[in-house]
Write a structure and sequence with these properties.
By secondary structure, this protein is mainly alpha-helical. The chain is 58% helix and 4% strand. The chain folds into 2 domains: 10-216, no CATH class; 226-352, no CATH class. It has a 4-stranded mixed sheet. A hairpin with a 5-residue loop joins strand 3 (281-283) and strand 4. Helix 1 (10-33) packs antiparallel against helix 2 and helix 4 (92-100) crosses helix 9. The relative contact order is 0.11.
Length: 363
């Protein structure tokens, strides 16, 4: 399969899919539960229906049908109740949901992808679909700007800030069509949303803009693949390895080996091995050794894209707090996750080369 330029992987797209479902649900809560229209039964019923439709989208099972149903439900409300004030000219969020119906099935993280030997499954987001997401969000900005500039009442009363926001609306789509202009377009677009009301429409607008994010903007940490050692008798560790395998489709980020392997004995002296905590262990080419949350953060950095943002976000918390959470999970992982039969996860032949079964040769 031809490599997509946008950098979306299955796990990142599944995170986006969950975010879109949450945005729709939050919009419904604001729209119905926090309003005075209708009876309490009607309002709770509308939110309940929305949640029932959004759940398959979040889980990744029957998600295409759920996305279309969710888009139809939100569009019907627009037509029945009138358009919201923010980015009113084009239903960008609903358009993103409709585009999901054309996204390849079963990305990593979807319910339908669980248990397959190849965790990534060769999943790619076609560049044409990603370009279409930029187009529908760009149209929402363009038509919002045109609506403002063709209104005599708006022209007569517009403030300097409103003129600046209008300029952002009009510039978004042209910037998105210029090579290298998309990061600026997305930054300006998200910034413009801060001037809008804090309500459900804002949530939908943010969700639509998230679909325009291009993970390829954030390249992985450079250098050859680093080695991640894991507990071969830990079900959670196996799941972590499967995650990294799926999110590193080209195999450029990491290599893997159990802590019980000859490779670990060769790379890490006995005195250091005995003092190590119960943890994932990353050993770099420079023989630097990282454990606990630091090993996880460095592994996420190696993946690039949205996972680098996740790593940056986690670094905002003190290492002692991150490690405490890591240790808490590690203490209970064997009770929560089934003990695997083999030290290495079951993977297809094309992925076996990423596992180090012997110590490196001296030759």
């Amino acid at each position: 399969m031809e490599r997509a330029k946008n950098g979306w992987t299955g796990g990142q797209y599944s995170a986006l899919r969950v975010a879109l479902a949450c945005c729709a649900l939050l919009h419904g809560v604001d729209l119905w539960l926090l309003s005075d229209g209708g009876s309490a039964l009607q309002r709770w019923g509308a939110v309940g229906l929305l949640a029932v439709i959004a759940l398959p989208l979040a889980l990744g099972t029957l998600d295409r049908v759920a996305a279309v149903a969710l888009a139809v439900m939100l569009l019907l409300h627009r037509f029945l109740e009138g358009l919201p004030e923010l980015l009113t000219a084009w239903p960008a969020f609903e358009s993103i949901l409709l585009l999901h119906a054309f996204v390849p099935a079963a990305p990593y993280g979807a319910w339908t992808a669980r248990g397959r030997p190849d965790p990534g499954g060769g999943w790619r987001l076609p560049d044409r679909l990603h370009d279409a997401a930029w187009l529908v969000v760009g149209l929402s900005h363009l038509l919002a700007g045109l609506t403002a500039t063709t209104s005599e009442a708006w022209l007569a009363a517009a403030s300097s800030l409103e003129w600046a926001l209008c300029a952002v609306h009009l510039a978004f789509l042209p910037l998105a069509l210029v090579p290298g202009g998309r990061p600026l377009a997305l930054g300006l677009g998200l910034t413009s949303l801060l001037a809008g009301p804090l309500d459900g429409s804002l949530v939908l607008a943010v969700g639509a803009h998230l679909a325009c994010f291009t993970p390829a903007w954030l390249a992985p940490q450079p250098g050859p693949p680093q080695t991640l050692f894991y507990d071969g008798e830990c079900g959670l560790c196996h799941r972590a390895v499967r995650f990294f395998l799926a999110e590193d489709p080209e195999g450029e980020a990491l290599r893997y080996a159990p802590l019980s392997s000859p490779a670990f004995t060769e790379r890490v002296p006995a005195a250091i091995r005995e003092a190590l905590p119960d943890s994932l262990v990353m050993v770099t080419d420079a023989q630097d050794l990282h454990v606990r949350s630091q090993a996880v953060l460095l592994s996420l950095d190696r993946l690039g894209g949205g996972w680098r943002i996740a790593a940056w976000t986690m670094r905002l918390f003190p290492a002692v707090l991150r490690d405490s959470v890591y240790d808490l999970v590690a203490a209970h992982r064997r009770r929560l996750f089934e003990v695997p039969v083999e030290a290495c996860p079951l993977v297809p032949p094309n992925l076996r080369g990423r596992f180090i079964t012997e110590p490196p040769s001296d030759s």
